[in-house]
Amino acid sequence: MKLSFHEKNGVVILEPRGKIMGGPDATVLHDKLHDLIAEKKLKVVIDLSEVDWMNSTGLGILISGLTTLRNNQGDLKLASVTEKIQSLLTITKLVTVFEAYDSVDEAITSFGAAARA
Amino acid sequence: MQWVNWLIVIAVFYFLLGAVLWLLGSVIIRENAKNRVNRVTGLMLFFAGLGPLFAAIGYAILPPGGTPGQTPLPAYYNLFYLWELFFPQLLFFSFVFPVEHRWVAQFRRTKYLIFTPHVFHLLLVTLMTRPNLGGLAIQTDSSLLQGLLAPLNFVLNSFGFLLSILFEFHLKFFSLINLLYIAVAIWSLRQGYKRITNVRLKSQGRFILGGILSAVGLYTVAFIMPALGIFPLAEPLRIALAILALLTGSIGIAWAIVRYQFLDVRLIVRQSLVFSTSSALLVGVYLLLITQVSAFIKDVLEIQTPLIDVAFIVLVLLFFQPVKHRTDELIQRLFLRDKADPRAILESFSREIASLFDMDDLKKRMIGILTEQLFIERAFFATRDETSKGYLLELKGLSDESFSGDDPFFVMARERGRPVAFEEFVLDRPLTPTTEVLSRWGCRLVVPIIDRNELTALLLLGEKVSGYRYGVEDFHLLATLANQLAVALTNAVLYREALEKQKMEEELNVARQIQLQLLPSILPIGECYRVAAFAHPSRQVGGDYYDFFDLPEGQLGIVIADVSGKGMGAALLVSQLQAFLKAGVRSRLPIPNVMANTNLLVHESTSSERFATLVYAELDPVSRRLSYSNAGHNHPILIRRDGQCELLDCGGLVLGVMPSARYDMTHVTLEMEDVLLFYTDGLSELQSPEEEEYGEARLIRFLKENRHLDPEELKNRLVREVTRFALGAIGFDDLTMVILKMCDGRTTVIASDMSS
User: How far apart are CA A86 and CA B495, in angstroms?
Assistant: First the structure.
């Protein structure tokens, strides 16, 4: 897995590529999420368009990021979820927990809408 | 009488100041004679010290009422002028300090030409003792010879006269040359000073330059100006200025040494006593020799010639240094043992590292050898930290400090690849975080340890106990030791990795044991159903789990679960999950409550990344009703007798994520011959070598096609089928399945041990 990121309108967009599996690879994503929380950057979108697959460890990282962000009054949203990962989220019923958007821009806008509301 | 007393006071003052300068110079040269700056600085102070020393001797033996400048001095006292070699030496100093000029190396020999005027001056004043040089003419009583010699004597007399004019002129204007030298030296020192960037060097330079400039300036005012006829001064004022000049010069340099480590202070303290004593002895012997030999020559041969004095000056210049060097070496060997046999050290080290596999033992032993055999006061390792790509400085007893691998210090150490004096890392370079700490700590030598082009570690050595700098021999020895150490350290890393792997294997075995023990060893027996189960733990041991519960009213409880992660952590969570679930099931609470409680307990007892998926089902054998709740697990596949397929997806979120999650429950009524497969993602996600997944669709098709088989046979065929699909590559993930098949109750129930 490779990880790049950028910031737009105060929202950090993480772009993992490849498979999010266990091992040192996944630690990068985990650490990045927790670094962001430490930096008080609490609006995070993970762009999953380039993620082929994730296993339970990968899913665990997303869950952990989400709960930690929410505990700090932030949020983690998913964007461009591929079909395979969508089915994983459906089976695990995590669709009810994660907010998922078709595009990164929609995900970013959703933060703005929440702020205005 | 008053004047004589004053003379003695001045002589003592001069003597003390001269001695201080001598001491400084001598110690600086001794400290490292191979270093050009040391050599030049030492000689400069040595010459500077000669001035007041000879002046002191002059005052002490002068007849009352005279001063050294006014009275014609015997040839011997002309040794006084030796001190003026200070000026070319000062110029030379200005070319090597604080930064060596490029051309110093370029003009290897010719640079010494700057001494020519002073050597000429010295020879002239020594040879021409008296200003009247008419005495050159050869005297004889024979009138014949007188006639023959008359023209020659005329030539000699004329030559003598010319020489005496030259001498007069020379005495008057030689000071101009000194003044010129001073001016060039000051200009050059300023140029060099401007180029320094290092803060410590800058402060050091400031004091040295300040000291020298004020000394030279005061001297110019006191002696050179009056000698040139400008600005004449009264004798006492000149003496006061001279003393002040000597004081400021030596204080400036001494302060730079003490405060800014121009040279090592402790070293100077330690060695100065030994070396100054030996220097004093040597000078005494020399003076004794000179006076005795010249007296002997005068008495026995009745020859009186300034040549003897010249010869002695040459002797002093030629042999003083080597003789002093030998004496010091002897003292060093006797009192400050330094020489260690490098071959013996290498042999003992090679022998020992062959038996040392532990990294810490190895480092400890290496440091032991260095401190005991090479007499190094302190030695530390900086080792590469693979995760941060930085280096960790292992300071015993102090907190370890870690540094970025991008620090220019490490880059340079890597480039050099062999032992390098620490000086080279700081001289004329800005301090980096690493060099700052190291210079505070007193690092003297850096030995990079390189393995396969990687700087794996650094050995950092402090000062030697003997105070000597590291010699060529030490560099060779340390380079060889570093090579051996590189191999040994790599072996130690491999050994540690092997140990860790072994430990991990052991841990995995324990985890595997836990997992296997949690699985039921006997399958349940029921009149209307048959059950088969399969579990194949992966090499890494995942968190798959299945179980059956015999419930009080005859129902059968079935659970299949998958805990996220692998290894010991997953195995432990499985065991906890089993306990939570059993407690809930035994309490006969409604299934949704059991699920909600289990969810809460998992949430509370694990970190936020860990979760579990789980299906819990209860089969009532009488009503054939199956009640279940699915917490985010792969949907169990129900294949009806007629081949219809249903997926059991009712339930809720995976366990352990949201403490407040709610779980639904639903019922399905099972008919005869219905087949229900519970499985974990290891089965559906099994991949072919082309990375194609086996998938739910294939699974459903297989079950439909083979639904007539009894569960045990169905299980075996399914395992064979997926093994073939994956071309034997099972083992990446846990593979677990439970098959329930409804029957009419007459057929015997097949009980089978769990296969693994």
Answer: 45
> Model ipTM?
0.88
Could you tell me which chain B residue has the CA closest to the CA of A60? B609
Instruction: Delimit the domains of chain B by residue range.
Output: 2-263, 264-336, 342-495, 519-742
Q: Record the tokens describing residue B736, joined without a space.
A: 């677990």
Q: Contacts of residue B657 in chain A, CB cutoff 8 Å?
A: 63, 67, 94, 97
What is the rounded (10 degree) CA torsion for B399, B400, B401, B406? 180
Under a CB-based contact definition with an 8 Å cutoff, are residues B261 and B205 in contact?
Answer: no
Bond before B552 cis per omega within 30 degrees: no
Q: Which residues of A touch B608 (CB under 8 A)?
A: 63-64, 67-68
Do β-strands B445-451 and A2-8 pair in parallel, antiparallel, or remain unpaired? Answer: unpaired
Best probe of the B interface among A21, A63, A95, by most B CBs < 10 A, is: A63
Contact indicator for A53, A18 with CB cutoff of 8 Å = no
B645-699 tens-digit pLDDT: 999 999 999 999 999 999 999 999 999 999 999 999 888 888 888 888 888 999 9
- CA B565 from chain centre, in angstroms, equals 40
Partner-chain residue, chosen from A57, A67, A96, that has the shortest CB–CB distance to B653: A96
CB B647 within 8 A of CB B635: yes
Q: Chain A: nearest CA to B604, how far in angstroms?
A: 13
| Cα distance between residue B54 and residue B122, in whole Å | 14
The amino acid at B113: L
With respect to CATH, is domain B519-742 assigned 1.10.10.10? Answer: no
Concatenated DSSP letters of B453-508: TEEEEEEEE--BTT-PPP-HHHHHHHHHHHHHHHHHHHHHHHHHHHHHHHHHHHHH
Closest residue of A to B659, CA-based? A67
Rg (CA), chain B: 48
B754 DSSP assignment: P
Quick check: A72 contacting B, CB < 8 Å? no
What chain A holds in terms of domains, given with CATH numbers, is 2-106 (3.30.750.24)
**B651 contacts on A by Cβ (under 8 Å):** 93
Burial B458-476 (b: 16+ CB within 10 A, else e): bbbbbbbebbbbbeeebbe
Fold of B342-495: Beta-Lactamase (3.30.450)
pLDDT by residue (tens digit) across B268-326?
454 555 556 566 666 666 666 666 676 677 677 666 556 666 676 676 667 766 776 77
Can you give the pTM of this predicted structure? 0.49
Q: Do A22 and B566 touch (CB under 8 A)?
A: yes
- State the SS3 of B29-55: HHHCCCCHHHHHHHHHHHHHHHHHHHH
* Continuous segment of H or E residues that includes residue B740: strand B735-742
Its CATH class, for the domain covering B2-263, is mainly alpha
Q: Is B609–A30 a contact, with Cβ atoms under 8 angstroms apart?
A: yes
Q: How far is CA B150 from the centre of its chain?
A: 80
Q: Write out the two tokens for B450.
A: 């390189």
Q: What is the model's pLDDT at position B188?
A: 84
B366 exposed, middle or buried (CB, 10 Å; 0-12, 13-18, 19+)?
A: buried
- Identify whether the C-beta of residue B399 lies closer than 8 Å to the C-beta of residue B382: no
Task: Identify which of A38, A40, A36 has the alpha carbon closest to the alpha carbon of residue A5.
Answer: A36
How far is it, in rounded angstroms, from Cα B630 to Cα B172?
Answer: 113
Distances (CA, A) of B281 to B277, B288, B613: 6, 11, 92
- For residue B406, the one-letter residue type is D
* Chain B residues whose beta carbon lies within 8 Å of the beta carbon of residue A59: 564, 611
Q: Do the chains contact at A60 and B653, CB–CB below 8 Å?
A: no
